[in-house]
Specification:
- With 106 residues, this protein is an alpha/beta fold.
- It has a single domain (3-95), classed as Sandwich (Hypothetical Protein Aq_1857, Chain: A), CATH 2.60.300.
- The chain has helices at 6-19, 65-71, and strands at 3-4, 24-32, 36-44, 52-56, 59-63, 75-81, 84-90, 96-97, 104-105.
Length: 106
C-alpha cells in the first residue's frame, strides 16, 4: 500500500489540474547519492501496463515492479518550511539516509 497525506494529494491534484492532463503520479527509485537510492517522481499521462496502481485521496499513484519492493508501505507528505517546500517520504523499508537527506538505504 502507498498512501498520501491530504497536503500531498492536494499538491498533486493542483499540479495535474494546471497541467490540463494526467492520470496520476509515478513514484519510483533510482541509484543515486551517497546512500544508494533516491526517490523519483513523474507525472503519468498513460500508465505502463506493468505498473501497480494505488489510489489515495483521489490521486492515482503508479509504481513500477522494480521499485515496489522498496516502496511498499510508503507515506508521502508535502511540507513547506520557510522558502523550502517538497515531498517528504516516510518509508518503513528505509534503514538509513545520507546526511544531506538526498538518498537512502534499505
Amino acid at each position: 500500500m502507498i498512501e498520501m497525506t491530504e497536503r500531498a494529494a492536494k499538491h498533486v491534484r493542483d499540479f495535474l489540474d494546471n497541467r490540463g492532463k494526467g492520470a496520476g503520479i509515478r513514484v519510483g527509485i533510482r541509484t543515486a547519492g551517497c546512500s544508494g537510492l533516491a526517490y523519483v517522481l513523474e507525472f503519468v499521462d498513460v500508465p505502463d501496463e506493468n505498473d501497480t496502481r494505488y489510489d489515495s485521496r483521489d490521486v492515482s499513484i503508479f509504481i513500477d515492479p522494480k521499485s515496489l519492493v522498496y516502496l511498499d508501505g510508503l507515506l508521502m507528505d508535502y511540507e513547506k518550511e520557510g522558502l523550502n517546500e517538497g515531498f517528504k517520504f516516510t518509508n518503513p523499508n528505509q534503514k538509513g539516509e545520507c546526511g544531506c537527506g538526498e538518498s537512502f538505504t534499505v
